[in-house]
Amino acid sequence: MNPMLLSMIAVVIAGGATALQAPTNAKMMTAVGSPVNAAFVSFAVGTAALGILAMILQAKPDMVAARNLPWYAWIGGLYGAVFVVAAAWGVPRLGVALTITLMVAGQLLIGIILDHFGAFGSPQSPISLGRLAGVALVIGGVLMVRRF
């Protein structure tokens, strides 16, 4: 199978999992009392799953190389924590579709800025009218999901 196509399918599946994660964590929030507690449970389960997967794949991290990374390479989990807490908090107030649509809009806005500057070593891709139009369409989608 084409590696690009396989990558795209994997990312679409991951996006679907994100949509499932939001209402699941919102449900957990009702039992554990807060979106932070729900995120804690979510990350604990995720950490256990990743630990098992790492053992199965026999993935051995190169901690020497990891120690030499810049500080910002160590805070990716913080972004995930913000995402999970916001999703657990947002779903009961906004619904799944609006919460996820707003999150995608935020991801795209930051994504085109990061791409424009080639931030964090990502491939550089300048902001263009087409890319801005794509973000505008998503924001239009947010408005449509909210109003209709």
Automatic annotation (TrEMBL):
<keyword id="KW-1133">Transmembrane helix</keyword>
<feature type="transmembrane region" description="Helical">
    <location>
        <begin position="37"/>
        <end position="57"/>
    </location>
</feature>
<dbReference type="Pfam" id="PF04657">
    <property type="entry name" value="DMT_YdcZ"/>
</dbReference>
<protein>
    <submittedName>
        <fullName>DMT family transporter</fullName>
    </submittedName>
</protein>
<feature type="transmembrane region" description="Helical">
    <location>
        <begin position="126"/>
        <end position="145"/>
    </location>
</feature>
<dbReference type="InterPro" id="IPR006750">
    <property type="entry name" value="YdcZ"/>
</dbReference>
<keyword id="KW-0472">Membrane</keyword>
<keyword id="KW-0812">Transmembrane</keyword>
<feature type="transmembrane region" description="Helical">
    <location>
        <begin position="69"/>
        <end position="89"/>
    </location>
</feature>
<feature type="transmembrane region" description="Helical">
    <location>
        <begin position="95"/>
        <end position="114"/>
    </location>
</feature>
